[in-house]
Amino acid sequence: MKKGSIYRFIAFALMFTLCFSQLGLLKTQAAGNPPANEKTLSIGKAAKGTFTEPEQTHWYKINPSKQDVAKFSHYRIKLQSDDEVNITVYSSLENAKNNVAFDRYMGYSYKDEPAQLDFPIAWTGPYYVKVEYYGDGDLIVEDDTEEGGQTPSEPQPELKTEVPYTISYEGASLPPSQMMEEECPAELSTSQKENGKGILKDLRTIRDAVLSKTAGGKDLSSLYYKAAPFISSKMIIDKSMREQVYKDLVQLKGLFTDVAKNGASSTYMITSADQKAINDLYSIAYKSVPTALKKDLEKVAAQTKLKDVTDLNVSSVLVRAKLVSANSVSTKAETRYIVKLKDGANAKSFKTKAQSKSAGIESINPLKQSAASFDNMFVIQLDDSNAKSFSTSSAQGKMTAKQIQALPETEFIEPVQEYHALSMDSQYPYQWSLNNTGKNDGTQHADIQYESLEKLLNGQKLKDTVIAVADTGVDSSLADLKGVVDTKTGYNYVDRSSNATDDNGHGTHVAGIIAASANNNYSMAGINSHAKILPVKILDASGSGDTEQIAYGIKYAVDHGAKVINLSLGGSYSRVLEYSLKYAYDHNVTVVAASGNDGMEELSYPASSAYAISVGASNRLDIVSDYSNYGKGLDITAPGSDIPSLVPDGNVTYLSGTSMATPHVAAVAGLLLSQNPGLKPKDVEKRLTDTAKDIKFDEKDAPVYDDEESPLEPPAPGYDYVSGWGRLNAYSAVSAQQLQAQVNTFVSTQKVVTGKAQSGSTVKVMNGSKTLGTVKADAKNTFSVNIPAQKADTVLQVVVTNGKASTSIRAVVQKAPAKPAVKAVTNKDEYVTGTSKANFTVNVKNSAKKVIASAKADAKGAFKVKIPKQKENTVLYITATNSQKQESEEVKVTVRDVIAPNAPKVNPVSDADTTIKGTAEANASVVAKVNNKEIGKAKANAKGQYSITIKKQKAGTAISVTAADAANNTSKATTVKVSDKTPPAAPSVNAVTTKSTAVTGKAEANATVTVTVNKKSIGSAAANSKGQYSVKIKKQKEKTVLSVTAKDKANNTSKATAKTVTK
């Protein structure tokens, strides 16, 4: 990072330390000068401009073309000036009018330091560019500022009359960017570098997380932006100034750190040493800026007393300075309570006691509104006007409530609460995974049935379950996570501390999905309101963690009370992690892990572990997301695409991935354990998967299994290698647990479905939309439903309903017995192989279903049945029979053709030919290639004859011809070389006289040139590599006609060139 960027942040430090203590200094300002008279810039063409006075603004516009959008990822915008000139790029006219821009798209130039901004072509445009000039600080006499911020009365010299600049832009294609830490200048010592890193990081946090929340804070950021180029340019050339600034910044490091960590709630007390550093920095800032900006600082001096900040609390100062809002300091304390008196209690006596026992009561009035009233109920209004802080007011309210509850007349007291239609959180309408209305291209009801779940659990008193989020940490300061996250027990295995705060955002997003407080008007609604989040930080700020951190984190969670562990992470298999997962499993802790985001037919680890519930991702269309890893072992899917949840900056942000799907499942696992803490991990998994919604396609959505080395293992009925056992249905899972619903195993020969359910529950067995039978569970909590016989592997749904609870449990009609798994059979094979149940007899039948061979499977179920070789496409049927002579369903196997055709025969091909002819296997596809590039193809007829049309090929070209049969078996290649049938051009002949003893000229390189007279050769010679030749002859008489021809190596002879001998 260039020094200018460093000093720009230092400029912010100067302005922050100057202004954070101001009492109402920075008023809300207008948005700034809106775009006016903007000029359109053209790509690759520089535009020149000139400022004629300070505080001028010039506007430019960039119209991204379709070509630019297709060709480039960014516009590289460059501003060059010998003076301090600022530049800001806005993504739209509205943002330009409102002065809304990202910090990285704000810059400045000064002598030998042009501003260069890489602006992404990510908006439709046009883009607006603002160029500003505030005055040349180098022309200002740097008089000392008087103590307290007062300026001397001497006049200042005039500023420059003209400030020229050049602005241009060009297209650029850049890789994705990464956040970079601010680096410290090389001049600092090692210890100072470390101080600098911490200070700059804290200042960035203060700017982005604290000051950006209010108009006053934004105004401060704007002032720093204007002052930055002047302070930066001074610091670069003035070493003593740098040293003084860093000395003062180090003094204020504690202040910065506390504000960065605690934001508006900082309780840091300003010391006298801090006060001195603030005064020093004020003086430096004042001396560095031009007259136009000095005026702003003079307002500071006029409206504040810098000496008066000593011993002040930073949070109260920030609020009074309007740099943060009062609401950001703490949650508003409750000031109204409702009291219910016991029957027969004396209201007058109660009021007297309440007001005498409890200080701070403003009024006590009956709970009455218009004609409605409630006997023995009163509203108490507290007076918090004398409270020193919001936390003090809250504490006073709780104390008052406690004192009133202790009065003999009081039955109960509770704070006044607000109620709204479900769900009352600002971002809830966007939480499609909880309530999918079908908007935004979604599928209605393709969600986890959260609203039905909420109604089911409403009023139920369930125990809280600890769910460990082993991730990048969790930001517990957010309103939706306050009181939900167990920060005291949390641990950080990245830096071995108890601070498990999130420095990435991933862990907070996960925790929000699980347990963000619902119906509190804040950001969103979490799924499980009976969860306590145990944050275990095992991933660093980049989202990475090593084996030890993760293993330790899992064990720590188990040992500190977690009943569910969410692992939204993945990598390669590790024995260490497997041990820790088994440790969790053996201690009855349910581990839920993400399947991975590679879109591959392989689960990421630890999702692939038998000790974890593996979770894939689905989208709002109720289909599996393209990126979601799948394959054998996938247990369940859950919503994972475009899932909104909290991140540490307070935003509700969309993220996609199996990382987002996993906490949906973890949250519901926690609810099941709140219902029954004695459930084992396998019980939790079965409850979740048995009640999942089938979302697999009826057609080609599953992988094709045609590997000759592996048995053909179709997925189990109801299971899908892409979506597992289906998409999570939270309401059905929790209902099933509440109803204690259980379906016993049954086979195709049975005509009754039995099981358990809460007495009085209605039990209905369904095959698709058809009802097969219905009963009520008896007083013993059992049921028996008579149904027609069903085919093996039929997937039925057993629907159990009682009151608000309703569940649908998948039940599969079992096979009796299982059919064998058979490997592919080819026309080369002499055995049919595969696996079945141990010791079963395996029969191979022909297309007429007549047994042609049999063999017995061994103790492990492997079988090998000898058969005669079969022709391709022959159909075989394989069955397995148990000792009771019960035969399995048939496995149909079509014999595959793996024998390649013979190499085709090819007729000779010359450089004059436009077809290749020959014979091959009947109906084969014949392809001709040169240098592995196809030049033509054709299909052989029933007799094997073929004719391939080609372009003429050069002599000597090798043509490779192959034949492929209907099974795509390809023959060996037949190679034919193109013969040369093209004669050379007639040679050129130089003049020949009666004195000549040689005939010379040019012909095809290396050709044999022959001279004849009256068809009789009189001489011949070979042309050289350049085509030059010289044929020795005897002297010829005048007017003798010579005939000269050239013959190439293929014996093709050119036309003759006649030459008459001259005198």
From TrEMBL:
Residues 1-23 form the signal peptide. GO terms for molecular function: serine-type endopeptidase activity. Gene3D superfamilies: 2.60.120.380, Immunoglobulins, Peptidase S8/S53 domain. CDD domains: Peptidases_S8_Thermitase_like. Residues 463-695 form the Peptidase S8/S53 domain. Its EC number is 3.4.21.-. GO terms for biological process: proteolysis. It comes from the Bacteria. Coiled coil: none annotated. Its main location: secreted. It is an enzyme of class 3 (hydrolase). It holds the Pfam family Big_6. Keywords: Calcium, Hydrolase, Protease, Secreted, Serine protease, Signal. Residues 743-813, 816-897, 900-980, 984-1061 form the Bacterial Ig domain. It is found in: Secreted. Its cofactor is Ca(2+). One of its GO terms (cellular component) is extracellular region. The active site is at D471 (charge relay system), H506 (charge relay system), S659 (charge relay system). Belongs to the peptidase S8 family. PANTHER family: CEREVISIN-RELATED, PEPTIDASE S8. This is Cell wall-associated protease. The lineage of its organism: Bacteria, Bacillati, Bacillota, Bacilli, Bacillales.
